[in-house]
Amino acid sequence: MDVAELIAAARDGSTRAAGRLLSLVEGARRDEVLAALGPHRARVVGLTGPPGAGKSTTVAALVALYRQRGLRVAVLAVDPSSPYSGGALLGDRIRMAAHINDPGVLIRSVATRGHLGGLAAAVPAAIRVLAALSYDLVILETVGVGQSEIEIAAIADPTVVVLNPGAGDAVQAAKAGLLEVADIVVVNKADRDGADQTVRDLRGEVSVPILKLVASQGDGVPELVDVIDTHHREDTPERRAARARTQILSLAHTLLRTHPELDRLAGLVADGTHDPYTAAATLFSSPRCGGAPPAP
């Protein structure tokens, strides 16, 4: 199928066609697909947090509740890239298996492929595809590896940070910068010892809503959805513009890191021929960045 046929098939309910479109926007045909779709805005909820906090379990619980309310939901699980294949290492989301055969749910793992910030460069395009295919909500789950995770705030509204009780998770999340971008903080596995103390610790770090959750049992999930909905209704054009600026800067950074002139300029700086300021200006003025040809 060509792109137009894939779009038509996906809008008729073909998950295979939708998956193919998502594959195309991860590659060289991204612009072609986006041009065919036209502009669309999606509602995006982001979940991040340290490994083992229960992000996938929380996502599965959220999907179940949103489906009960009649919403079509897509899940983008952003995974670390395989150093060999470049593919997503965590492609099989076992905890979401209950939703695999639901035509109102699409689950997709996306490899980061070296992009900084915990998000794949193709994620904004994938979200636009899903919005064009009439998914009511996109849930974005990031890999949860620390400082770089804060980029999720550039795309999602709200950003939900999922933590475990005890074990210093609140302190570690603060050190990693996760709490700086949290719109909502969830203490998952709240039936374990230390949950109340973790909530008290968090109240000393953030002023955002803090909820207790037992995602594996669905306890606290309706309350979390209510808080998510309230936050979404309070979004503003200024906040959307700030998120857009961060997305642009992040993707520009990725383009610069893969620029064909970077290695040559690095060599010139290393041997003292160029200073780093001149090299940076040269990189920005090169044809790939839309400027004049690079300096000799």
Describe the model.
42% of the residues lie in helices and 12% in strands. The N and C termini lie far apart (45 Å). A 7-stranded parallel β-sheet has the order 3-2-4-1-5-6-7, with helices on both faces. Helix 3 (30-37) runs parallel beside helix 5 (123-132) and helix 11 packs antiparallel against helix 12. The chain folds into 2 domains: 1-38, no CATH class; 40-235, P-loop containing nucleotide triphosphate hydrolases (Rossmann fold, 3-Layer(aba) Sandwich), CATH 3.40.50. Strand 6 (184-187), helix 8 (195-203) and strand 7 form a beta-alpha-beta unit. It contains 12 helices and 7 strands. With 296 residues, it is of the alpha/beta class. The protein is globular and about 60 Å long. Belongs to the SIMIBI class G3E GTPase family. ArgK/MeaB subfamily.
Main attributes?
296 residues; alpha/beta; Rossmann fold; 2 domains; seven-stranded parallel beta sheet; 12 helices; disordered C terminus
CATH topology of the largest domain: Rossmann fold
The averaged pLDDT comes out at 81
Number of strands: 7
Adjacency order of strands in the biggest sheet? 3-2-4-1-5-6-7
CATH level-two architecture of the largest domain: 3-Layer(aba) Sandwich
Summarize the topology.
Elements: H1 3-11, H2 15-24, H3 30-37, E1 44-48, H4 55-68, E2 73-79, E3 105-111, H5 123-132, E4 137-141, E5 159-163, H6 169-176, H7 178-181, E6 184-187, H8 195-203, E7 210-212, H9 221-233, H10 237-257, H11 262-270, H12 276-285
Parallel strand pairs: 1-4, 1-5, 2-3, 2-4, 5-6, 6-7
Helix pairs in contact: 1-2, 3-5, 11-12
